[in-house]
Amino acid sequence: MIVLGIETSCDETAAAVVTDAREIMSNVVLSQIEDHRPFGGIVPEVAARAHLEHADHVIGQAMKDADIGFNDIDAVAATTGPGLIGGVLVGAMSAKAIALAANKPFVAVNHLEGHALTARLTDDIAFPYLLLLVSGGHCQLLMCNGVGSYTRLGTTIDDAVGEAFDKTAKMLGLGYPGGPLIEQAAATGDATRFDFPRPMKGKPGCDFSFSGLKSSVRRAIELLGDDLDAATQSDVAASFQVAVADSLVSRTRKAIETAKESAPNLSHLVVAGGVAANHAIGDALRSLCTETGLTLIQPAPALCTDNGAMIAWAGLERFRLGHTDPLDFKARPRWPMDPDAPPAAFAGVKA
Ligand code: KG4
Ligand code: ZN
Q1: Which of 298, 320, 341 is the last residue of a domain?
Q2: Comparing C-alpha atoms, which of 282, 198, 283, 295 is closest to residue 256?
Q3: Tens digit of pLDDT for each residue in 180-197?
Q4: Domain around 56
Q5: CATH code of 184's domain
Q6: Are residues 191 and 288 in the same domain?
Q7: pLDDT digits (tens, 9 = 90+) for 74-110
Q8: How close is the Cα of 195 to the center of ligand 2, in Å?
């Protein structure tokens, strides 16, 4: 079984071909970082236009790299939400056009399900498992029970964790995107110099919050004024990063306890999304797993950040269970993985 997957929900134009033997035949990702860098963040209109400009040749390249034609695929999948609607429409319409022209089934994929199922492509793990999804747009803890079946244990009540990295980098004058730059600066910093808060640590439930931490970093930077030299920047970055790692570990520890109540044999924690590339966070989660008897699955960075392979794979998982979607399937800017989850207390749009 061969599936083409298209991803255009944020700032990567991506397409890939995967097989049910878990082979990634091709995986083409075109990052728009340079288009957005001058603005210090993603501009939805810029993203939509860039997807429109590049989708055709990115899809063509994925087919060429896989050395197959549209007649060789069994289905075409695309992200149909959640995400920036302009980009989502470009990818979804491209996939529908291919499906119509090549007379192949179309599979609508929830972007978050793409992240959630990647560990089954890379590591062939069985359900159920716990997922910590940490990206620029999301911060959630999800119990993955089966394809299409997820229980949300926690979500952010304000910023996503990647957003906190990006904003902190901006306040420090490090540039964009902030995650890798904070990690780089933190490598030589003193993580004990600033005692930033550990948001939600020890609180009941598994929800996240990062706005208080961000304000605290802003106040520290304001107080430093002209004393913010490169060494101090590194100390702020390191102190911020350890506070985030502590907070993520505390929330995930709670989620493991909760998950084990319904799944006593829980054996895997999966971490996905761009922030999963952070080594300090990875190390902290690995220690937590050792302590709680779980195995940590951390897909390679290229499969943690947005890509087409995760969408092709999620499409394949759905397709082989018999799920296909009509060509008038509507794109969904918001599409919760667990529609039955109650809204998180005080949560804004990110929940
Ligand atoms: O999953 P992703 O590529 O895109 C979505 O947001 O869906 O995640 C991007 C986010 C950005 O906020 C970026 O700053 C963050 O992931 N990020 C990192 C690192 N690399 C990327 N955050 C912390 N440490 C990193 N090494
Ligand atoms: Zn993503």
Answers
A1: 298
A2: 295
A3: 999 999 999 999 999 999
A4: 2-117+302-350
A5: 3.30.420.40
A6: yes
A7: 999 999 999 999 999 999 999 999 999 999 999 999 9
A8: 31
148 shares its domain with 250 = yes
Q: DSSP letter string over 293-315?
A: T-EEE---HHHHSS-HHHHHHHH
- Atom 14 of ligand 1 has which residue's CA nearest to it? 179
345, pLDDT greater than 90: no
Ligand 1, residues 163, 168, 298, 305: which to mutate, most atoms within 8 A of Cβ?
305
Q: What order of strands is seen across the sheet that includes strand 268-272? A: 149-155, 139-146, 129-134, 268-272, 295-297
Q: Which amino acid is at 53?
A: E
42 falls in which pLDDT band (50, 70, 90)? confident
Looking at the structure, do residues 310 and 188 belong to the same domain, yes or no?
no
Q: How far is the CA of 329 from the centre of ligand 2 (A)?
A: 21
Within this chain, do residues 166 and 265 fall inside the same structural domain, yes or no?
A: yes
Same domain, residue pair 244 and 176: yes
How many distinct structural domains can be found in the chain?
A: 2
Distance, in Å, from the CA atom of 72 to the CA atom of 3, rounded to the nearest integer, reads: 9
Q: Rounded to whole angstroms, how far apart are CA atoms 161 and 108?
A: 27
CA of 335 to the centre of ligand 1 (A): 21
Q: What is the pLDDT of residues 116-162, one digit of tens each?
A: 999 999 999 999 999 999 999 899 999 999 999 999 999 999 999 99
Asked, for residue 122, whether it belongs to a domain, the answer is no
Expressed in angstroms and rounded, the spacing between residue 128 Cα and the centre of ligand 2 is 21
Residues 28 and 71 in one domain: yes
Indicate yes or no: pTM above 0.90. yes
